Amino acid sequence: MAPQGSRAELEFGGPLGAAALLLLLPATMFHLLLVARSGPARLLGPPPYLPELEELWSPWALLLCLTWLGLQAALYLLPARKVAEGQELKDKSRLSYPINGNPIYDFFLGRELNPRICSFDFKYFCELRPGLIGWVLINLALLMQEAELRGSPSLAMWLVNGFQLLYVGDALWHEEAVLTTMDIIHDGFGFMLAFGDLAWVPFTYSLQAQFLLYHPEPLGLPLASVICLINAVGYYIFRGANSQKNAFRKNPSDPRVADLETISTATGRRLLVSGWWGMVRHPNYLGDLIMALAWSLPCGVSHLLPYFYLLYFTALLVHREARDEQQCLRKYGLAWHAYCRRVPYRIVPYIY
Ligand SMILES: NC(=O)C1=CN([C@@H]2O[C@H](COP(=O)(O)OP(=O)(O)OC[C@H]3O[C@@H](n4cnc5c(N)ncnc54)[C@H](OP(=O)(O)O)[C@@H]3O)[C@@H](O)[C@H]2O)C=CC1
Ligand SMILES: CC(C)CCC[C@@H](C)[C@H]1CC=C2C3=C(CC[C@@]21C)[C@@]1(C)CC[C@H](O)C(C)(C)[C@@H]1CC3
C-alpha cells in the first residue's frame, strides 16, 4: 500500500487540476447563485450581473456563519454521545510527512488526513453537521420566503424540501457510516472537503429551492406522485445497498447478510457478489443518482439550472467510482479482478 505522503499517483489532475479547481469551484458556486436569481436563469453564458464588492461583504453574515459553526462545534463537543470506533486508516502503521513541493495540490486535497485538537475531529465534524443541516435550513428559509411572497409554498417547493430533508435526516441517522467513506479514510482535510462541506453543499445543493423561489413551477398531483415514486425507488436502492454493505462489514454473520454469496480476498476481508452488490459495483451511487433526478424534476424542464446537481453529481460519482476502483485494486488485487468479471457494470446495469 502506498504511504499517505509518497504521492506516487496524483489525483484530480495533480497540481494543475487542483489549481484550476481552486478557482473554478468558488466561481461556479457564485455563478449558479447569480443565475438562479435572474429572470432567464440561463446556466450557460456569462452571469447576468456582477455584484458590487460591498454586496459581498457583510459583518452580520460573517457573524452568522461563525455563530453557526460555533453552535455546531458546541453541540459536537457535548459529552453525552456515542463514541464509535473508526475503520482502520490507510496509514495504519505510522504517519510520514515528506516535503514534496506540491503546495497547491496539498492545499486542495489536504496534507493532514484527520486533523484533530483533542477529540475534536475537524473533518468528521465538517462532513456532516454544519453543511448538511445548513442546507436544510436554507431550504426551509426559501420555503418560508415563498409562503410570504405567494401566500403559501408551492407543491414543487414542498417536494424539494421533503426529499432533501429525508436525505439529510438519513445521513444523520446513519452518522456512523460516514466513518467508512473514502473522505474519512483516504482523503486529506484540505480545500476540497472544507469548501465542499461548508459552502458547496449548503449553497449549491439548495439550488432547486433557490430556483423555485424565483421561477415558480406549477405541478399537478399526478406528476408529483410519479416524482415521489422515483425518489422512493432511489432511496430504497441507496439505503438498501449502503445498509447491506455496512451490516456485512460490521458482522459478516449478521442474519440479514449471512446468506449472501461472497468471494474471499488475500486481506482476509470478503467481497459481496450477490444482493445489491451483485447487481452493479456501486448500487448506492445508482440510488443516489435516481434521487438526484427526483430533486430536479419538480422544477420542470424549461431550464437546465435545476439539473446542475444531477450533472455535477454524475461527474463526481463517475470520478469517485474510478478512484475507489483504483484503491480496491490496490487493496484486493486479483480478487478485485474476479469481482469485476463477476459484476461487470459499475453503476447502471447493462449501461455503465
Ligand atoms: N451527496 C453527495 O454529494 C455524495 C454522496 N455520496 C454517497 O456516499 C455514500 C458512500 O459512498 P463512498 O464513500 O464513495 O463509498 P462506498 O460506500 O460505495 O464504499 C466503497 C467501499 O466499499 C467496499 N466495497 C466495495 N465493493 C464491495 C463489495 N462487493 N462487498 C463489500 N464491500 C465492498 C470497499 O471498501 P472495503 O472493502 O475496504 O470495505 C470500497 O472501497 C454513497 O451512497 C454515495 O452515493 C458520495 C459522495 C458525495
Ligand atoms: C467541492 C467539490 C466539487 C466536491 C466536494 C465533494 C463533497 C461536497 C462531497 C464528497 C463526499 C461527500 C459526502 C456527502 C456530502 C457531500 C460530500 C462532502 C454525504 C455526507 C451526503 C449525505 C450522505 O448520506 C453521505 C453518505 C453521508 C455522504 C458522504 C459523502
UniProtKB/TrEMBL annotation:
**Keyword terms:** Cholesterol biosynthesis, Cholesterol metabolism, Endoplasmic reticulum, Lipid biosynthesis, Lipid metabolism, Membrane, Oxidoreductase, Steroid biosynthesis, Steroid metabolism, Sterol biosynthesis, Sterol metabolism, Transmembrane, Transmembrane helix
UniProt subcellular location = Endomembrane system; Endoplasmic reticulum membrane; Microsome membrane
Instruction: Tell me which EC number(s) this protein carries.
Output: 1.3.1.70
Where is this protein chiefly located? membrane
Give the superkingdom in one word.
Answer: Eukaryota
Q: Mention one GO molecular function.
A: Delta14-sterol reductase activity
| A biological process from GO | cholesterol biosynthetic process
Report the top EC class in one word: oxidoreductase
Q: What InterPro entries does the record tag this protein with?
A: ERG24_DHCR-like (IPR001171), Sterol_reductase_CS (IPR018083)
Q: Does the keyword Transmembrane apply?
A: yes
Q: Its topology with respect to the membrane?
A: Multi-pass membrane protein
Q: In which pathway does it act?
A: Steroid biosynthesis; cholesterol biosynthesis
Which is a Gene Ontology cellular component entry for this protein?
Answer: endoplasmic reticulum membrane
> Which parts of the chain span the membrane according to its record?
12-36, 56-78, 185-207, 219-238, 289-310
Q: Which reaction does it catalyse?
A: 4,4-dimethyl-5alpha-cholesta-8,24-dien-3beta-ol + NADP(+) = 4,4-dimethyl-5alpha-cholesta-8,14,24-trien-3beta-ol + NADPH + H(+); 5alpha-cholest-8,14-dien-3beta-ol + NADPH + H(+) = 5alpha-cholest-8-en-3beta-ol + NADP(+); 4,4-dimethyl-8,14-cholestadien-3beta-ol + NADPH + H(+) = 4,4-dimethyl-5alpha-cholest-8-en-3beta-ol + NADP(+)
- Please report which protein family the annotation says this sequence is part of: Belongs to the ERG4/ERG24 family.
What the protein does comes down to: Catalyzes the reduction of the C14-unsaturated bond of lanosterol, as part of the metabolic pathway leading to cholesterol biosynthesis.
Kindly provide the name given to this protein in its UniProt entry.
Answer: Delta(14)-sterol reductase TM7SF2
Q: Which organism is it from?
A: Phocoena sinus
Q: Which gene encodes it?
A: TM7SF2
